[in-house]
Design brief:
The chain contains 11 helices and 14 strands. The strands form 3 sheets. An 8-stranded mixed β-sheet has the order 4-1-9-10-11-12-13-14. Strands 3-2-7-8 form a 4-stranded mixed β-sheet. β12 and β13 form a beta hairpin. It is globular, with a radius of gyration of 20 Å.
């Protein structure tokens, strides 16, 4: 399968302030705040849901196509993704804007002051999926992830008009979308991804019941945190898959993206839904054990050992075929 992933491309600039923000605030002067904090360190991490998902798929050898917008400062990030098996030829490079970035400072009490710069992400709406499909010889599935809202709507409508199967994945953007927009984005999706909280929010904003939504999508894939994932289809039995045991827990950031990467890779291999979900849960476990969304290394023997321990020899033998 040729799978394209549309979504944000960003970098996170994370800093630590050894003191307390509260000690620097003067109660009767909050209307004229002017502060600068001398920080101890700077941690720059690659991120963005589109890039995170593609990185995971690349680690599994499925050569995903990343579709999004970045700035002229994307060269180093592009080289990183290229080295890890991602097709970046369909990334639009802005002539005037920098790649999106999140800048955040955390104090000793774990309070945070942050800013998100949209930057080149706003130009994702100018990308036409037809040009992507023509370049690679057609698309079998497009995952429409969190991105510029106008881009998400355009990509969804283009998939419908061109008959390209698509997966709907609102993620962080669901908070700013209204019911009409959410209805447009999910109606007719082959897969609808969300976590449990987002599932309830989708139903609340659209006014559609769970059954009505199941009637409008092919598969509803709901991640359940440490309990794994649930896959529902209208008129079919529910598939539930648990997570492998963690060696330790470091950082949950990017775990959902890793699940999607594993699940989509399983679909690309042609395995069943349960097996694809197991691959997704195993990859998500690797990410929760790592600091950073793209800092894990998929060592195939180690992956297969843990996968087989969690899901059995038959499951391991099937997946081993694709990871040899």
């Amino acid at each position: 399968m040729r799978i394209a992933v549309t979504g944000s491309i960003a970098t996170d600039h994370l800093m630590t302030f050894p003191g307390r923000f509260a000690d620097q605030l003067v109660a009767d002067q909050l209307h004229t705040v002017s502060l600068s904090f001398l920080v101890d360190n700077l941690d720059v991490r690659r991120g963005g849901v589109g890039a995170n998902i593609c990185f995971g798929m690349g680690q599994l050898g499925t050569r995903p196509i990343l579709v999004g917008a970045a700035g002229s400062d994307f060269d180093e990030y592009r080289a990183w993704l290229d080295r890890h098996g991602v097709d970046t030829e369909s990334v639009r490079i802005s002539e005037v804007l920098h790649t999106a970035r999140f800048v955040c400072t955390t104090d000793a009490d774990h309070n945070q002051i942050g800013s998100f710069y949209t930057g080149a992400m706003s130009e994702a709406r100018q990308i036409e999926l037809k040009s992507v499909a023509d370049r690679v010889g057609g698309l079998d599935l497009v995952l429409i992830g969190a991105d510029d809202p106008e881009a998400m709507l355009r990509h969804t409508e283009e998939c419908r008009s061109r008959g390209i199967p698509f997966a709907s994945d609102f993620s962080q953007q669901i908070a700013r979308m209204n019911g009409d927009e959410i209805r447009i984005l999910l109606d007719g999706a082959t897969y609808l991804f969300s976590n449990e909280y987002e599932k309830g929010l989708i139903e609340s904003k659209t006014g559609w019941t769970d059954e009505e939504i199941l009637g409008r999508v092919g598969h509803r894939v709901t991640t359940l945190g440490s309990r794994g994932v649930r896959i529902e289809r209208a008129g079919e039995g529910v598939i539930e898959v648990g997570c492998p045991e963690e060696d330790f827990k470091v950082d949950p950031t990017g775990v959902g993206d890793a699940f999607r990467a594993g699940f989509l890779s399983g679909l690309s291999w042609g395995v069943g839904l349960e097996r694809a979900a197991q691959v997704g849960c195993m990859l998500a476990t690797l990410v929760i054990e790592t600091l950073g969304t793209q800092e894990y290394t998929l060592r195939r023997a180690h992956f297969m050992e843990r996968f087989t321990k969690a899901y059995g020899h038959d499951a391991g033998a099937e997946v081993q075929t694709f990871l040899s």
